[in-house]
Structures are given as C-alpha cells and as structure tokens.
Design brief:
Blueprint lengths: L6 H56 L3 H18 L6 E5 L5 E4 L11 H4 L2 H11 L6 E3 L6 E10 L2 E11 L4 H46 L18 H62 L5 H24 L9 E2 L1 H17 L3 E6 L5 E4 H18 L5 E8 L3 E8 L6 H5 L16 H11 L3 E7 L2 E9 L6
Parallel strand pairs: 7-9
Antiparallel strand pairs: 1-2, 1-5, 3-4, 4-5, 6-8, 9-10, 10-12, 11-12
Helix pairs in contact: 1-2, 1-5, 5-6, 6-7, 7-9, 8-9, 9-11
Length: 482
C-alpha cells in the first residue's frame, strides 16, 4: 500500500502527481482559452465579412442585378481559399419576404424558395430575423445545431432591402485548435520530462534525513549508534529538531546504560566483598600460625644456607598470600617494604614452575637495579597476576615476554604473549570480576590487578591483536615510602 512506502518514494510520487496535475490543469485551461479565442476570432471575422458584404450588396439589389449579387456572395469563397482563412459554408440573401433572392448553393436553395423547407434551422432564423430590430450583424446559434449563422440587415437609406445570412460550421476551426493542442501537449511533455527528474531528486533530498534517522533508530534496539558515526540533518526545522531530540535520547540512553553497568559492577563487587569476607577469616588464622612457626624456626640456631633461603622464600610467599587477601578486600592501608631487585626476581622464581609445566618460554628482562619506594607486595602481585594470565592465554610452547624498566618518575611493567587475542567486546569487561572467558578461574586476577594499580595511582593499558597481546602497567614512583 502507498501508506507503507518509504518517504524516499512517497515525497517524489506526491511531487510528481502535483506536477502532472498542475501541468494538465494549465494545459487544459490554455486549450480552453485557445478554443474560446479561435471561436471569438471566427465571430469577429464573420461580423467583419457580413458588414462588408451587406454594404457591397446594396447597389446590386437596388438594381435587381441577381448575377452581380451572386458574384458578390461568392467572392469570399475565392478569397478564403487563397488566404487560407475561415470561410462560411453557405451564404444566402433573403428578400423582405424571407424568400431566397440568391444563394451560394442555388440547387439547394433555389430563387424565391422558402429556405425553412430545405433546412429546418432556417425556421428558427426566420423568427430571429423578424424579431431583430438592429442594424448591425448579429450571430445566431440555433438549438441542437452544429452551426451558427451571422445575419446582417441590408438597408438603403433606412429602407430594408433584405437580409444577408452566412452559415458557419462550429467545427471549422477545430483543425487549428487540434494543431495548437498538439503543440501545447508537446510543450507540456517537455516540461514534465524536465520537472519530474528534478522532483524526484529534491524528493530524495528531502526524504534523506528522515530515512537516515529511521535507519539510526532501527539500530537502537540491538545497540546504541556510535556518536562519531551519527551524522544527522542539522537545522531549526522540524526534521532538525527531531534529529536533535534523537541525539539527546541516544546520549541519555548511553548514560542509562553506563549507570546500569555501574550498578551491575557494584553488585559484582558486593559479591566479591562477601566472598572475600568469608574467606579472609578462614585463611588469616592458619596463615598467622604458619608465619609464627617460620619466625620461631628462624630464631633457632640453624645456619644451613639452603634452609635459610627456603624459609625466607616461604615467608615471602605467605606474606604475599596475606597481602593478596588485603588487596582482595581493597584495603587502603597495608604494611610492606620497598621494592627491591630481589622481590622482582622472586616473582620470576614463583612463576617459572608454572611456565615449565605448560612448556611456555618466559623471556625475562629486568632493567631495575635500585630499590624503589613502592610496596613490594603489591607490585609483585601485579606481576604475578599478569604473568599467570599470560600463561593461561598462550598454548603449549607459547612465548611470554616480561620487561620491567624505570623511567625518571615511573615504573613500567610490560607483559606480552602470543596467545589468543582479546576481542573488542571482551575488552569492555576485561577488568570486571567474574567475566573470564576461560574454562577455569573466577576472573578475579585482572580485577585484583586493576584495583591494585589504581590503589597505587597508576594506569593499566591493553593492546591486543591476533598473535600479540600486551598489558602495560605504569606506576608513579613516589619521593619517599612510608
């Protein structure tokens, strides 16, 4: 149905219909005007001819010269044939008794005959002639007749001598009318050929903002359109106002979506908080006992270097677990010593067994040689989480590269792998808890890393493409460590 068509077609179709209707109405009015003008010209020509003939016939009738009268009424036929102008079908001269004095068709209208007997139309003319009191030619059109007659009194010094009757066919000017009509239609068709494409072009231009807006609105159901790709018609008219309202609606929907996402994230954080509160008590009690046992063991006289090294490594590991619980609870206050080279190397020692077990090559580059005023436990936790995350991403015999270096006022931790890359959709929720796409794990590692990095007022960035994924953590180095 027409109402279901796109405005891309409705507007041009309506414009085309308006143009066609206007062209037809204008052409019809011009043709009607041409018809009236041709008929008026014919009447003027007949009036002029009747005046001339009535004046010319007077001397011949006064002298009762029938042959001269016949020649005079036949002269218009000769002139009209040469000049190609409208001519009468028949001319009669009637005497005062309404009988034929002479005619251009003597066989049809013999002399002294009653023309009403030959042509019933003359019966109406005779009554008109009797009733007519004027001295100038007048046109008479009998009813139900395809002709009109121009009658002119023939008078000499106020004495009526007879009546001149000139019969014209109403269709005699139709050939000229048809010729004018053909030219008018040709001009109309040329005008339509020029205007219709313009109408369709402007129709499409007018409908383009509406169709474009409709296309953007269709996208709202699946996803909100990108502001950078949202190119709407801008103006102060109604379409421009609708486009502005649509942009405002999209912005409000995005704000609502962001708010819903924050609420969803808050619910996840609440779940993490409940989980952390539940496990903190269960872990901290045995953890404190193990740390006390190690402290007691170290106070005894045991000078075996291997044992001392092993106990120190166990102690750092248990302290790492304790601080991990603190990081999981997002505690702002923690106790830790400044970051040393040994702390960084211990991280490598902790993850190497996992790398060997998964047959993963770990390329380690540590350019830090000084102690930095950063909490060692949290920095180590960031490194451990990133390295373990990279190991889970790579396949067997994959490659991981870890580069740790310092600039003037920042510490950079760069971990990259050649495993499966992270898609754009995964990047949006990468640092949210419980959003892991792997078969194992709870998705807390990167979330904890994100929390620790922001706790240290740092930044974390992700660059991922097929064959290479890189996590870059930048931590500001404070002037002092407390």
């Amino acid at each position: 149905m027409f109402r279901d068509l796109s405005f891309r077609y409705k507007i041009p179709l309506r414009g085309s219909a308006l143009i066609i209707c206007t062209a037809l109405v204008v052409t019809a009015s011009l043709m009607f005007r041409a018809y009236e003008d041709l008929k008026r010209d014919l009447l003027l020509n007949a009036d002029s001819m009747a005046r001339v003939l009535a004046h010319t016939l007077t001397p011949a009738i006064l002298h009762d010269d029938v042959w001269r009268t016949y020649e005079i009424i036949n002269s218009p036929f000769q002139i009209s044939a040469k000049a190609n102008i409208n001519q009468a079908d028949e001319i009669l001269v009637l005497d005062t008794k309404q009988q034929v004095y002479v005619s251009t068709h003597p066989k049809q209208y013999p002399m002294l005959s009653d023309p009403a007997r030959v042509n019933p139309e003359h019966a109406q003319l005779q009554q008109k002639i009797v009733d007519y009191r004027g001295s100038k030619p007048t046109a008479i059109e009998p009813s139900n007749s395809g002709k009109f007659y121009m009658i002119a009194p023939i008078v000499s010094d106020g004495v009526p001598l007879g009546t001149l009757v000139m019969g014209y066919s109403n269709s005699m000017f139709l050939p000229r009318f048809y010729d004018i009509a053909r030219r008018a239609m040709a001009i109309t068709l040329l005008a339509l050929a020029a205007l219709l494409p313009i109408s369709w072009y402007w129709g499409w231009r007018m409908a383009a903002p509406l169709t474009q807006l409709a296309g953007y609105m269709d996208e709202v159901g699946a996803a909100l359109p990108d502001d950078s790709k949202l190119q709407l018609y801008e103006s102060r008219d109604e379409i421009g106002q609708v486009g502005t309202a649509f942009k405002r609606m999209v912005g409000e929907l995005k704000e609502k979506e962001a708010l819903e996402r924050q609420i969803f994230l808050s619910e996840r954080l609440a779940a993490v908080g409940r989980l952390a509160a539940g496990i903190a008590h269960e872990i901290n009690n045995p953890l404190g006992g193990m740390l006390n046992a190690i402290s007691t063991f170290k106070k005894r006289d045991n000078h075996d270097p291997q044992t001392q090294k092993t106990m120190s490594l166990l102690e750092r590991g248990l302290l790492q677990i304790k601080d991990t619980i603190a990081a999981l609870l997002v505690e702002a206050k923690f106790k830790s010593h400044p970051l040393t080279v040994q702390d960084i190397e211990d991280t490598r020692t902790l993850v190497l067994p996992d790398a060997h077990q998964r047959c993963v090559e770990l390329n380690w580059e540590n350019d830090v040689l000084d102690t930095l005023p950063l909490p060692s436990t949290l920095v180590r936790q960031i490194l451990i989480n990133l390295l373990l995350n990279a190991m889970q991403a790579v396949t067997e015999h994959g490659h991981i590269r870890c580069h740790i270096y310092r600039n003037s006022d920042t510490l950079t931790l760069s971990v990259e792998n050649d495993g499966k890359h992270i898609t754009g959709e995964q990047l949006d929720t990468l640092f949210e808890p419980f959003t892991t796409s792997r078969e194992s794990g709870h998705g807390l590692g990167l979330w904890m890393t994100y929390q620790i990095v922001h706790q240290l007022k740092g930044e974390i960035a992700v660059q991922s493409q097929p064959g290479e994924t890189r996590f870059i953590v930048t931590l500001p180095i404070p002037e002092s460590f407390t």
